[in-house]
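Quick question, first post here. What does this chain look like in 3D?
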Amino acid sequence: MTDRVRAGRLMISAAGSGSGKSVITMGILQALKDRGVRLQSFKCGPDYIDPAFHARVLGTACRNLDTYLMGDKEVLDEVSDAENSGLLAVAEGAMGLYDGLGGSLKHSAYSTAALCGMQVIAVVDADGRERPELQLERLLDKDELGLISAVLVNRCGSAEYPHIKKLLETVISGRQEPDGSKGYGITLCGYLPVMDEAVFPSRHLGLVGAAEAANFALRVKKIAAAMEKNGCVDAVLAAVMNDPVVYNHVIPDSAGAFAAQRAAAGEHACVRPAPYEPCVSAVHAERNGNKVLCRIAVARDEAFLFTYHRALGNLQRAGAQLCFFSPIHAGCLPEDSDGLYLPGGYPELYAPMLEKNERMRNAVKEAVFSGMPTVAECGGFMYLGEVLYDSDGKPYRMAGALPGRAKRQSALVRFGYLELTQETGSSLLFKEGDTMHAHEFHYWDSTHNGDALLAEKRPKNLTWRCGYTGENLYAAFPHIYLNAEMAERFVSSCRKYRDRNRQGAAASAEAFRRI
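> Answer (accepted):
Ran it through. Tokens below.
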């Protein structure tokens, strides 16, 4: 193990998308969970779909590691928080291991692994367009820090694995350590066979939602069982752990020795059952004396689910009580709401249900018109518009708090990382002159995208205008990360809104008493 990585921190990645990272990750998470290992899963980059799969496997929230949106410090804090809680950190990379901003390594899965000291398990696809040994060659050629410590073959038959294994061993034996010594010390961790259970359908933004995957729990159990049968899990733990015993790793034919070692060592945090962790706890910042400063209504249901766990935590640390509600199923906003957060998701798939809930649409419109501080991103932004067309081009009425009719386009619209600048004046989340990182990933576009912010993609030298901002509003297609500063600005505005309403109610009551 190199001095650049730490035991108990691992990342699963591949040469490119479509190699099976998500399936392999789910299988490893399930197998380790079944062994009693306490885990924290992570997903690199601006991904909201894979984290939902992780969460469904573990029953606890997955956390994003996005160095572009979150910054290095908050990414490191996420991993350190897990480690300090005695959790094994298992991260899934985004796209290919070396795919970063503008074709560079910046903000890639590899740079994240290097930042966090994670060992990399490289997934090579036996059924891909490129031969497995060539995939591994490409991965090792760029591994200047020697982070790759294990290889796992996906979609491989038992008859062909011995041949593929020899080819991979040849590639490994010919490589050098970063210090020039021969042999990477890379562990071959076996293979996952071709399985119907490992095929998850996709839609326009990636895999179908975790909640929609049929027989999900049974399928993941079978994937984990296949990996256990082929020795993948034992090999992964042996490759990435200095002391696999504390992670409930039983070496074959050594159960008695393991039991003796465990009895001598005593219980370790990582072998206790993982408690269920609500997506967001009710913890508030110590500097606010655990006092609730405001209540923010957060949309969360089938249509709205794209949020970073740490962003919600930042709101709580700033003093917000988060009140989750469903724009599809609920009849009104949570009682005494002082703010509104409408994250992205799949409103286009649930447009008929959203239209049918007229009471909620009117409540949201009234809240925005009353000046309730509101953050609406991507899908939430479309919900604030007038009309949303589904995939078949059928129109459905939305909240109507903003102008615009959102309709599917033929390709991804303004896809990727970008910067947003508030050029003049201050707004709910931005001070004048602020430039913040953001991300867009959507096929739908609106006839009225707004023009309050300057958007820019520096690598491509592209600029455009977008969004609606004001003293109590951020509404736009770009996803932003509510860092500590923005969370505090949001909470501060919500508190002012709450105080104004209370003063107004008190004045009305006093006037009534005088009648």
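DSSP finds 15 helices and 26 strands in the chain.
Residues 286-502 form a domain with the Rossmann fold fold (CATH 3.40.50.880).
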